[in-house]
Design a protein that fits this description.
The complex is a heterohexamer, with 2 copies of chain A (102 residues), 2 copies of chain B (134 residues) and 2 copies of chain C (130 residues).
Chain A: E1 3-7, H1 16-23, E2 29-32, H2 47-53, E3 58-62, H3 63-68, E4 81-83, H4 85-94, E5 97-101
Parallel strand pairs in A: 1-2, 1-5, 2-3, 3-4
Chain B: E1 5-10, H1 19-30, E2 36-41, E3 78-81, H2 82-87, E4 99-102, E5 108-111, E6 113-116, H3 118-126, E7 130-133
Parallel strand pairs in B: 1-2, 1-7, 2-3, 3-6
Antiparallel strand pairs in B: 4-5
Chain C: E1 2-7, H1 16-29, E2 33-39, H2 60-71, E3 75-78, H3 79-85, H4 90-95, E4 107-110, H5 113-121, E5 124-128
Parallel strand pairs in C: 1-2, 1-5, 2-3, 3-4
Helix pairs in contact in C: 1-2
The chains are: A alpha/beta (102), B alpha/beta (134), C alpha/beta (130).
């Protein structure tokens, strides 16, 4: 069963995002919302970890949370897809289950 | 009602925030619904089931003994992550002795604590149908 | 598809109530069914009618209330969490001998079993919190 | 020594209200003066009188109220934070056209200037929060 | 009233939690008290003053423009930590252009943003008399 | 001026404690309260960082928070002192200023 992992914590502040990466399975999807959106940017101290996860997982970021924090979509890591709330809903429907990383 | 695989994921230390206590309250209620219930203790969540908790110094109720009641409610799958323990300098000896009685094995008393690696925990999580995080 | 949504934080302090509200709106627009929204922990504070934020700020409690009434949503406040935090409806306030209540229209107070039942009855259960 | 204490979180959800309460008690026992306790952010939720936790749990809001009355403490709830979160005293509720209030005895509602003044007037300013 | 050195320490991103907004509200109020006010932006606090914030997608008020008013209230010492920026892939170009006018220098417009190393930030923090954390 | 740094976050969950260590000055004191108390234990992935800080800073832990989490005082790092709330108050009085790391 494919799972959608929803993470809402900045990877620079909490280990939550790391823990999520460590527990997600191949074929799962990860959606970054709220403060976690800052993790989508390329060239950060976290970017390499996320790129490694992209080898076998799909990564998404909620666009509204990115732009709210002054980060434009053209700075995100290549291969991360942006979604709006409608896309968020689709992700929860397309994956059999969800797990929130708080 | 149909039976589903429920997992309660505990990642936070007790007393510093209310999540551990209120998560436990949900878990106890879930017992009445005859579902397939598992608990995961990862990251600081492992402190929730340490032995010898004594809250007299902080003015809060010590609710750790309620975990011992879980076995009586047929909640007997408490997955605890080895890596989380090790990082915190803890071993299974630091955890409460949580048990359940196996009806199919002449009511033999068995440990409810299932020590797993992070990889094994990921596999258990992947099997769940409803995952509640606190 | 049928959803249960759980909200663990109060309004303003944390974004989770905002996010959940947008999520529920988007799900309804797509024709999904919201079986229940369960407010737990500080999430119960989303159900007060005494909030009056600055005029240029959102009034989250009212937005939940209005959305719930419009779509007939089952907005449930956990009774144990509500009692700890001082969220009361009229009958509960009376029962506790209190001289006031503060719940907003469209919410109801009930037990934790409603959350588990939501998880059983729904195709998806989504948690928003801190 | 003269103290101002700032509390940023509500009761139960986070330990900061518990810790601050123990700190203030210990400071009073040592003969220090508590110039002011300022409740900001979700900290305003410490001032509700509608809380009824389980019988075996502490009732933090009442403990603050009683400690404040006993020692004549100045327990101040930030008005802007209180308005967002639905903490109201009688006059503020009336002014806002609300049909109920929920503040507990011993607290008062005032502006953020009270926090800055506390920092100026006190020898020590201690922050408790999340 | 006497004048004290006040520092407001901002460590959290805006919008995910209320602390950035309610911290800014205190800072603006503090201007009325004629104190020696500094702001520190470290860790995720640096996101509070990024340029081009657009909150239309999340239903919250964009309060970032209020930082631009700080200079008018004689709050002109905004210490921003270089290490925090670098870890997040940010530079000063990503921050708002926050300025104040120097009365003693023919009202010349000067930047309010003072980029400092972690070590320099520690030294600034050590000089404060009242430190409020959010 | 000596400063008391009050930290209340687990070093295993948030960078707050690290940030505190990075900003405290020589001669300062650090008090661990609430969830931060777990950082006082020896033999953890965090212990070496705290031991390094002890070279020029005094470290304290609120005993009640330690025992609440099932950790006995005999497991803390050598040189860390335990205090009760009265001791906490004394630390705030003995240091000219305080800073909370939340």
């Amino acid at each position: 069963m494919a799972m959608l992992h929803i993470v809402n914590k900045s990877p620079f502040e909490k280990v939550t995002f790391d823990s999520c990466l460590g527990h997600a399975s191949a074929g799962d999807s990860i959606l970054m919302i709220e403060d976690a959106a800052v993790g989508a940017i390329d060239g950060t101290a976290f970017a390499d970890k996320l790129k490694a996860a992209m080898a076998d997982k799909s990564i998404y970021v909620l666009a509204g949370d990115l732009t709210a924090r002054g980060l434009s979509e053209d700075r995100i890591i290549d291969g991360i897809k942006t979604v709006d709330y409608a896309g968020f809903v689709d992700l929860t429907a397309d994956n059999e289950t969800t797990q929130s990383w708080l | 009602m149909s039976s589903k695989k429920f997992m309660f994921v505990n990642r936070k230390a007790p007393y510093g925030t209310v999540y551990a206590l209120e998560s436990l309250e949900v878990v106890l209620i879930s017992a009445a619904f005859d579902q397939d219930v598992s608990l995961a203790f990862i990251d600081d969540g492992v402190y929730q089931i340490t032995n010898g908790q004594d809250t007299t110094g902080i003015g809060q109720k010590n609710f750790s003994k309620a975990y011992k009641a879980l076995g009586d409610y047929d909640i007997s799958k408490l997955y605890v992550e080895k890596e989380s323990l090790a990082e915190r300098g803890l071993t299974q000896d630091d955890l409460m002795d949580l048990v359940w009685e196996d009806e199919d094995d002449d009511w033999a008393e068995k440990s409810s604590i299932i020590l797993v690696s992070r990889e094994e925990m990921a596999a258990v999580m992947a099997e769940q149908e409803v995952t509640l995080s606190f | 598809m049928k959803y249960t949504v759980m909200i663990n934080e109060g309004p303003y302090q944390h974004q989770s109530s905002d996010t959940a509200l947008q999520f529920v709106r988007a799900a309804l627009e797509k024709g999904h069914e919201i079986f229940r929204v369960f407010f737990y922990h500080d999430g119960v504070n989303n159900g007060t009618r005494l909030s009056v934020p600055p005029a240029d700020d959102r009034l989250l409690q009212k937005e939940w209330s209005e959305l719930g009434i419009k779509h007939g949503l089952d907005l449930v406040i956990c009774i144990a969490a509500a009692q700890r935090r001082g969220l009361m409806d009229e009958s509960e306030a009376k029962r506790q001998g209190l001289d006031a209540d503060n719940i907003i229209e469209g919410f109801r107070i009930s037990g934790l079993g409603q959350l588990i039942e939501g998880g059983i009855q729904s195709d998806r259960t989504i948690v928003f919190g801190d």
